[in-house]
Specification:
By secondary structure, the protein is of the alpha/beta class. The protein has a single domain, classed as Metallo-beta-lactamase, Chain A (4-Layer Sandwich), CATH 3.60.15.10. Helices cover 22% and strands 21% of the residues. It has ten helices and 14 strands. The strands form two sheets. Strands 6-5-4-3-2-1-14 form a seven-stranded mixed β-sheet. Strands 7-8-9-10-11-12-13 form a seven-stranded mixed β-sheet, with helices on one face. β10, α7 and β11 form a beta-alpha-beta unit. The chain starts with 8 loop residues before the first helix and ends with a strand.
């Protein structure tokens, strides 16, 4: 079955109105599904201190579609929902996930999966603490170094000692059965690992399999061939932080070695159209021109047979 994608326009337009609390219930074909709750790089968009054209209008007019990269995972059959990444936008992303899931008024997810200890991927945990939600034992899935980092460094250690979160250990290539319908497997990837390891995830549903890699160094730095991994999944959400080096010509590119989108387009050019259609770039820096659908960069991605991940898009699992 081809991928089904839609944007929950009614929800995102009217969610600020208290009388409209829930999105339209899912059709039965989406009982197990993934929703994109954010697609922007760690520091968000508009970006702090940015004086460029890419952010000027955003500072004047708040765009609710500019949220840091995050996925929601839903099993309606078993009434479970999960969050991938705890971002600075977690407040609205949890509300979006609850309204999307529809089966419970419970705000907290049944688990949060972290990829690594960079600001856009774990700092949202702070809102689960005593100064904010005061949550109770929210399961947080983390790899060994990530687990130790949270346990031994404040303010995160307070979340543990106050039982706001309950850290559940993950192992490289070890599969966690979340529900009878959903399985999750982390795998390490090369990245800047100052405080923790960095992982991607495969998410297995009853019918579809997802690849999620928000941050990675150049594809050739990985000891696994990315094309082989893509071949074994149905959807691949891949690091698209920068379109090309022109965006960051004021910085040392060697210090931020993400695969540029133009490099990925070149690498994937000989894939079949079926394989290309699996790929959705995600985790966009505020300068990335693919955020503008009228840009030549966006058009080039689409014409190449690949896709740009959009907030609110839903994928059947």
């Amino acid at each position: 079955m081809e991928k089904f994608t839609f944007i929950l326009l009614a929800f995102f337009i009217f969610s600020c109105q208290p009388e409209i609390e829930k999105a339209t219930p899912l059709p039965t074909s989406f009982q197990n599904s993934l929703i994109i709750l954010g697609n922007i790089q760690d520091a968000g968009s508009p970006h702090i201190g940015c004086a460029k054209k890419c952010c000027a209008a955003l500072f004047k007019n708040n765009n609710r579609n500019r949220k840091v990269v995050c996925l929601g995972l839903v099993d309606h059959d078993n009434e479970k929902k999960y969050l991938f990444e705890a971002t600075p936008d977690i407040t609205t992303q949890l509300k979006d996930l609850k309204n999307y899931a529809t089966f419970s008024e419970k705000e907290m997810p049944d688990g949060i999966f972290l990829t690594h200890a960079h600001i856009g991927h774990y700092t949202g945990l702070m809102y689960l603490g005593k100064e904010a939600k005061g949550a109770k034992n929210v399961p947080v899935y983390a790899m060994p170094r990530m687990k130790t980092f949270l346990e031994e460094n404040g303010p995160w250690s307070q979340l543990v000692s106050h039982n706001n979160i309950e850290i559940r250990s993950l192992k490289n290539n070890g599969t966690t059965d979340l529900t009878p319908n959903l399985k999750v497997t982390p795998f390490t990837v090369p990245h800047r690992d100052e405080y923790s390891e960095t992982v991607g995830y495969t998410i297995q549903g009853p019918n579809k399999k997802v690849l999620f890699i928000t941050d990675i160094n150049k594809w050739e730095k990985w000891d696994i061939k990315i094309e082989d991994v893509i071949a074994n999944v149905d959807y691949a959400f891949l690091d698209g932080t920068f379109y090309d080096g022109a965006e960051i010509n004021h910085r040392d590119i060697s210090q931020i070695p993400h695969p540029f989108i133009i490099e990925s387009l070149e690498r994937f050019k000989d894939l079949t159209l079926k394989e290309k259609n699996k790929i959705h770039f995600i985790h966009f820096n505020h300068t990335n021109p693919v955020l503008d659908k009228t840009s030549e960069a966006y058009k080039k991605v689409i014409q190449s047979g690949l896709k740009v991940a959009e907030i609110g898009a839903v994928f059947e699992l």
